[in-house]
Amino acid sequence: MKKKQVIAVIAAMTTAAAMFAACGSSSSSSGAGSEASSSESSAAASSDASASASSGSSSAAASQDLSGTVATNGSTSMEEVIGALSEQFMADNPNVTVTYDATGSGTGIESVNNGSCDIGLSSRKLKNEETSNGLVATTVALDGIAVIVNKDNPISDLSVDQIASIFKGETTNWKDIDGGSDGEISCIGREAGSGTRDGFEEITGTKDACKLAQELTSTGAVIEAVKNSPNAIGYASFSAVEGQDGIKALTVGGVECTEENIADGSYVIQRPFNLVTKDGTQLSAEAQAFFDFATSKDAADLIKGAGAVPTAK
C-alpha cells in the first residue's frame, strides 16, 4: 500500500473514533438528565406524601384536642346508661370530664332550659310547654318500666288494668287477685316530676290518681323499699332491676320485661331515654362530641350493656 493511502485510512479511522466518542458523551449526558428529572419527580412526590401525612396527623391530633367539662343533669333511671357512655367517652378523650347530676327528669329539663347544664337527661317525653320553649329531645334508648314485687310474693303476672286498679287504691289486698295471699297492698312510687312516674302513669292511665304509701326520689330507693316490704308493689327502670336480689319483676299481660320485648313493643310499659338540648343554644365542642358519640352506633353495645335498648340503627 502506498504511503498516502495508509495516511488516508488512519485519518478516516481517527475521525470515526471521534464521532463515536461524541455520540457516547451525548447519550450519557441525556441519561444523567433523565435520572435527575426522575429524582426531582420522586422528591416532589415524597414531599407531597409527607405533606399529606402531616395534614392527616393534624386532623387526628385535632380530634384529640378536646378538653373541658360536659355537664349532664336529670333522670336517675339513666344512671347506668349515662355512666357507661361517660366512662368510654372520657377514656377516648382523657382531657374531658363528663359530670352527672341525678336530680330527676323534671330538674334536668329545667337545667337545660335555664342554661345550668349542657345536656339534660329525661326518661319521659317532653311536654308541649317544654317543646314550645325550644327544648328538643333526642332518644338514645328505650327502657321498660318493670313492675316489681317482693321476691316472696306468689303473684307473677298482672294485666295493665289490674296494675291500674292497685295503684288507684281500688284493689287493696293481694288476696283479691287470683293466687294472691292475704295482705294489704303497699304501693311504692316516685316523686312528682320523675320521668319513671310520668311514663308509668301515662301508660297505665293512673295520672294524678295513684294512692301511694311511699313517694320516693330515686329508682334505687323504690327497689329497696319493695325488697323490705313483703306486700309492696312498685315500678322501676328495667336497666336498674336486672340482677337485683329480693325483688322480682312481674310479667304484664303475660309478657316479660326483656330487651327483645321492649324493642318490639310487646312489653307495653316502656318509655324513652332522651338527651335534651335547647334549640338555638350551641353546645361546646366537647359537649357536641359527647352528644354525637351517645347517639351513634358506636354507643349501642354500651347502652345494651347498661340494660337499655339502643335506638341508633
Secondary structure blueprint with pairings:
Layout: H1 3-63, E1 68-74, H2 79-92, E2 96-102, H3 105-114, E3 119-122, H4 128-131, E4 135-150, E5 157-158, H5 160-167, E6 186-190, H6 195-204, E7 214-216, H7 219-227, E8 232-237, H8 238-241, E9 247-249, E10 251-252, H9 259-263, E11 270-278, H10 285-294, H11 300-305, E12 309-310
Parallel strand pairs: 1-2, 1-3, 5-10, 6-7, 6-8
Antiparallel strand pairs: 3-11, 4-8, 4-9, 4-11, 4-12
Write structural notes for this entry:
The protein has 313 residues and is α/β, with parallel strands linked by helices. It folds into three domains: 1-48; 68-142 and 273-310, Periplasmic binding protein-like II (D-Maltodextrin-Binding Protein, domain 2, 3-Layer(aba) Sandwich); 143-270, Periplasmic binding protein-like II (D-Maltodextrin-Binding Protein, domain 2, 3-Layer(aba) Sandwich). It is 45% helix and 21% strand. It is built from eleven helices and twelve strands. It has helices at 3-63, 79-92, 105-114, 128-131, 160-167, 195-204, 219-227, 238-241, 259-263, 285-294, 300-305, and strands at residues 68-74, 96-102, 119-122, 135-150, 157-158, 186-190, 214-216, 232-237, 247-249, 251-252, 270-278, 309-310. The strands form two sheets. Strands 1, 2, 3, 4, 6, 7, 8, 9, 11 and 12 form a ten-stranded mixed sheet that branches. Strand 1, helix 2 and strand 2 (96-102) form a beta-alpha-beta unit. The N and C termini lie far apart (102 Å). The model is unreliable at 1-62 (pLDDT under 50).
